[in-house]
Amino acid sequence: MNIRHLKLRFFRNHAGRDLRFSPGLNLLTGPNGTGKTNILDAIHYLCMSRSFVSGSDQYVVMQGESGFRVDGEFEGSIRSSFRVTCNYSRGEGKKIFVNDSPLDRLADLIGMVPVVVLSPDDKRLTSEGPAERRSFLDAMISQISKSYLSDLIDYRRIVKQRNRLLSDPRYRSAELNAFLEPWNRQLVQTGSRIILKRASVLNQFAHYLQETYDLISGIGHRPHFFYKTISTETGNLDDLEQHFSSILADEYERERDREQTVAGPHRDDLIFYLDDQELRKFGSQGQHRLFALALKLAQLRFYSEHLDDLPVLLLDDVFGDLDPHKTNILVRTLMDQNAQTFITAANPEPFRDLVEHGDDYMWYIMENGELKLHN
Q1: For the domain that residue 166 is a member of, what is the CATH number?
Q2: The dihedral of CA 102, 104, 106, 108: what is its sign?
């Protein structure tokens, strides 16, 4: 999948931009703080309906304005060309249009234009808490499975409703049990499907992680992970549902005390290892960085073999702390994937050879608030 044309209006520091891109490499260089990342973030909005930089749409609006608009024209080898528009205003919220027709749900956009993002924040995947890794896993699977995304949305709604009941002081124990029973059934059924899908994808993903880590590290460590969920047996749906139901019964008193759902896929985690050492506890900064890069490259390879169209690849300032050898390996690896690639960098030198000896590229330079094509 490729984005060929992008228009921005009042998006962060871009009052108005009209950009065309190559289906191959697109390089954006210039000093930090000039708005390179914002262009990648605008593309991400058209793929995932949200920012990969900011947690709130209101912070994306240019100062002094009431909203923003992003338009993109896409085409792929399977899907014919189509337009995606993201409109946001502080009064009406966010709306997504495809070929000028509004989507009923923002979630309907997910998977239409698969995207992989590499950024400095990727280190949070290996160094911070379980929510970061669940978010990575959910975003990865949701782009290839509409049923998974639907289950995920339903599951979050079910947990929210259960938590509301558990925290309601009006209900005595017998009454609460009666009200919880239908929600428990939905929690078990939907949550078990989510766990089985995660386990299935991760079983395939392990191979790609090993390959990509070997490629970019050049060190003989074995990267692997443990999927921490409610059961170590994740191969049979009926057995998993029975086990989940049993856990809910055992945890009832604790749920009443804490007034929240304490078991299920919303508590899952991925424990990363290098050889026999847990990365989060014992890994060096360099090992965290390489492992996070390997995760995202493994995601790209996974998509490349499971999707009809290649994803769009966004690399935001990921080369600044890599040595020249690893930078060269990473760049060559990315180019071998044949996915449309966007790279932002303050220093263009690591990529000069690529653009000077390649045919399929565009090089934008940002200077003093202006964006111009490199000759």
Answers
A1: 1.20.1050.90
A2: negative
